[in-house]
Please model this.
Amino acid sequence: MPTKDPNALHIAMIPDGNRRWAKARAWHPWQGHEKAVENFRTITDWCQADPRIGVLTVWCFSTENWKRDPQEVNKLMTLLEQYIEKERPNLQKKKTRLVHSGRTDRIPPSLATLIGEVCAETSHFTGFTLHLAVDYGGKDEILRALRKSTAIAPRENEPTSNEQRATESDLIHPLLDHPELPDIDLIIRTSGERRTSNFFLWQSTYAEWVFVDKLFPDFTTNDLKEVVDGFAKRSRRFGG
Model:
C-alpha cells in the first residue's frame, strides 16, 4: 500500500440513488443497496491505493433514514454488518483504520459490537482511514458535543471577540465524534441531488462540493479519478 502524504485529502461521499437504481430494474430497494456495497468496495480499494487520499468518509445511514420502511432498514443494517465482517481481514491486510461517527444506541447491538471491535483492532494503523457514518446527522453530532460541555456559552454581557470565538471552537471541536480527523476537503454526492442534507456540518465548513448525476451503483473509479484530478487543480483560499 502506498505511503500516504501527511496532508493527504479527506474525501467524503454521499452515495445516493441506490433505491432508484433498483426501481429502474423492478427490483427490491435493498437490491440497490447490495449493488452499492459491491461498488463501495471498489471505490474504497481505489482510495486506499491512491497516495493523495488519506481518509474516505461514507454516509451509510443517516439519523433521518429511520423513517424508511422497517424491512428496508433491517436489510441495510444486515448489509452493513456483513460488509464490515467480510472486510475485517482486508482492513488488517491493507493496514486501514476503521472509525465510526454517529450513534450506537439505536442500531442493532450485534452491529454496534462489531463496529467497536473492528475500530479497536485497527486503531493503530495510520496510513489510511475508512470512516463510516452510521446513524449519523450533523446536527445530532453537534448537539451531542454540546451536551458534553457546559462551558461554551458566553457569560452575560461578555463581549464576543474573535479570540473568544476561537475558544468556543476549541471547546466544541474536541467533543465531536472524531476530532483527530482532518476537516473534509471534498464531498461527492451522487444521483443528481444538490443538497447538503445535514452532512458533517462542522467538518465540511470549507469543503468543496461536487454533485454527480450518476446513481451511486453506476459511479465508477474513473468518475472518482476525474473528480479528484479536478479538485487537485483548484485554488483553495479558505476565505482569505
Notes: Residues 9-232 form a domain with the Undecaprenyl pyrophosphate synthetase fold (CATH 3.40.1180.10). The beta strands are 9-14, 53-62, 96-101, 128-136, 186-189, 208-211. The CA atoms of residues 63 and 200 lie 12 Å apart. The two ends are 36 Å apart (CA to CA).
